[in-house]
Structure formats: C-alpha cells, structure tokens
Amino acid sequence: MKDSHGVVIVFNADTPSHLKEIDMWYSCFVQQQLLQDTQCLLIAHHKPGSGSDKGNLSLSPPLNKLKLVHSNLEDDPEEIRVEFIKYLKSIVNSVSESRDREEMSIIT
Question: Is residue 23 within 8 Å of residue 62, measured between CB atoms?
C-alpha cells in the first residue's frame, strides 16, 4: 500500500456482503493512505446471466462519490477496458502533475 497512487476495488455486485466489505477496503486502501477519491475506481462485477440491475447498488456515503463501473465480461468486455484505460490515464496525469509541482518547488 505504501506509495500507491491509485486503488481499484473489484467486488461481486450480486453478493450483498460485498457491499459492506468494500467500506473496509476503502478505509484501508484509500482513506488511510490519504488518497483522493479520484484515485479510486470501483468495479461492480456481475456474473454472466445474473440479470442484476446495474442501477440498484446502495453504496455508503463515502463510496457513492467514487467512480463506479459495472462489468460483465461476457456482455460488454469493451466497456470495462475503456473505463480502466481512462482511470489509468488519470492516475498517470496525477502523478506527473505532482512530480512537476515537486520539481518546481525544488527549483524555486
């Protein structure tokens, strides 16, 4: 966890206990590491044929501010790939900006 720049939390959206567990993972990996919410991506995975409603997740207040992507690798594998690439690009930009600020503070 030390020196991490981002966190991806993948959970089974069809398992109610996972909704409670992701609070703990968020606290451990995001809040305690002092990461910003933009550095976290939630992926709610739906097993093929589960028929789950993608809009019916009740996330706790700290989690409902995070970027949430629903995945089903059989129905739409491209969507998760595109969203993950966007997330990685945002992390790379954040790290680059942070490094630039650090270098400028050393120079001035």
Answer: yes
What's the pTM value of the predicted model, to 2 decimals?
0.83
With contact defined as beta carbons under 8 Å apart, do 14 and 47 qualify? yes
What's the pLDDT tens digit per position in 22-73?
999 999 999 999 999 999 999 999 887 766 656 667 888 889 999 999 998 8
Residues in the chain: 108
Average confidence score pLDDT of the chain: 88
Alpha-carbon distance of 44 to 22, in angstroms, equals 10
Q: Which residues contact 56 (CB under 8 A, 6 or more apart)?
A: none
Q: How far apart are CA 52 and CA 40, in angstroms?
A: 23
Measured between alpha carbons, how far is 100 from 102 in angstroms, rounded to an integer?
A: 5
Tell me whether residue 44 is exposed, middle or buried, using C-beta atoms within 10 angstroms of its C-beta: 0 to 12, 13 to 18, 19 or more: buried
Half-sphere exposure of 96 (CA within 13 A, CB side): 6
